[in-house]
Amino acid sequence: MQKDRKAFYRDLKKKLKKQHKFPSVYMFKFIVPNENKLHAQVEALFGSEAQIAIRESRNGNFVSVTAKEMMLSADKVIERYREAESIEGIISL
């Protein structure tokens, strides 16, 4: 499984470098179970200058968290995704 994660992030880095010119604003999107603790953990990933929008699912079981933040490099984007992996039940889009 660890090899799969390394390959995933290696491929992601290539795509980021191809599709974005850093520094630039990058949009992160996550889905988490609708629990205040989890909302707070996702929001804590981002600095105070980030624009964060939270939207509840139709049934209220989940929320989507969209955050736009200035990122300096593809490595910083990947670092943020790796930090997010520690949040229980998170799905990165």
Search tags:
30% strand; globular; 4-stranded antiparallel beta sheet; 93 residues
Summarize the structure in words:
The chain has 93 residues and is of the alpha+beta class. It has 3 helices and 4 strands, in the order αβαββαβ. 40% of the residues lie in helices and 30% in strands.
Q: SS-based structural class? A: alpha+beta
Helical fraction: 25-40%
Cα-atom radius of gyration: 14 Å
Helix count from the secondary structure assignment: 3
Strand content: 25-35%
Q: Secondary-structure element sequence? A: HEHEEHE
Largest sheet: 4 strands, antiparallel
Q: Strand order across the biggest sheet?
A: 2-3-1-4
What average pLDDT do the residues reach? Answer: 92
| Low-pLDDT segments, ≥5 res | none
Number of strands: 4
User: What global shape is seen?
Assistant: globular
Distance between the termini: 19 Å
